Amino acid sequence: MIILENNYLNAQIKVLGAELIALQRKGKENVLWVPDFSFWNRISPNLFPFVGRLLKDTYRYNHQVYEMKQHGFARDLSFNIIEQTKTKVELQLTDSDETRINYPFYFEFTVIYELIEEQIEISYTTKNRSSNKMPYSVGGHPGFALNLPLHQYRLNFHTDFEVDRWLIENTYYTGQKQLMKIDNYLNLENEYFSKDAIVFKDPKFSHVTLEKQNKEKLVTLGSDNWEAIGFWTKQNAPFFCIEPWWGYADSHNSSGNIEDKEGLHWLEPHQKETVSYFIQLH
């Protein structure tokens, strides 16, 4: 167990999956949920090398078919601690014989957690150690604790906008969209999640706050460079996920060829790329 601490926050991180499992202001409760396996067995998994689910859980690369489970394998593998201080830790996963069975690339995937006053910043750096171009996507999936029914919460986007909700059914995009008009707030209801997550591609906002209807703020999550965001829970579950993504799931009519997949990043040999998001506690 890795423990980070500053004057405002405490955080706990597991080496398995480099998963953030507890986050709290000093003297207050943990904002992340405690898993109930009847709903979900994760807390805040890191998604790599693919975000979302591939059609039939497979993809084709160089005329060969590879299997890949939803959200990739990083969340189920142990990371190495590269560097650690009181307020920051750097964890890294590298390719192995095991990973190359499903993902035939040489890579370094680094997750950095850093406490900065009342925020924790989570950074993902992906490096291609292969001699060929390497496709990948990455994302976060933190689940926040709810102690009231879902309808007593709302999302505060701090701005007005119109956005397409990309509709999902059975974990895949249907190819259909639904225009949503947001007037700062979205009041949460179970019906929004009856089939799957709310997903916005190319978000029109830089941060979003999960708060109670009485305006009590719980957490704010944001990024300067996210490419998609998902909001997800299960019916009557005591958690709510805000998911910053750089990539997304397949649709029902995806070809299965990795070269055709939407939302992927392609790294040139020995190139690396960093993306990040933050969670602020109130």
Q: Main sheet?
A: 9 strands, antiparallel
Read across the widest sheet, the strand sequence of neighbours is 7-8-9-10-22-18-17-14-15
Radius of gyration: 18 Å
Which term fits the overall shape?
Answer: globular
Note down, in words, how this protein is organized:
With 282 residues, the protein is an all-beta fold. It folds into two domains: 2-143 and 255-281, Beta-galactosidase, Chain A, domain 5 (Distorted Sandwich); 145-246, no CATH class. The protein is built from one helix and 22 strands. The chain has one helix at residues 97-102; strands spanning 2-5, 9-13, 20-25, 46-47, 58-61, 64-67, 80-84, 88-94, 107-116, 119-128, 134-136, 138-140, 143-145, 153-169, 172-187, 198-201, 207-212, 217-222, 228-232, 239-246, 265-267, 272-281. Strands 7-8-9-10-22-18-17-14-15 form a nine-stranded antiparallel sheet, with no helix packed on it. Strands 4, 12, 13, 16, 19 and 20 form a six-stranded antiparallel sheet that branches. A hairpin with a 6-residue loop joins β19 and β20 (239-246). The protein is globular. The mean pLDDT is 97.
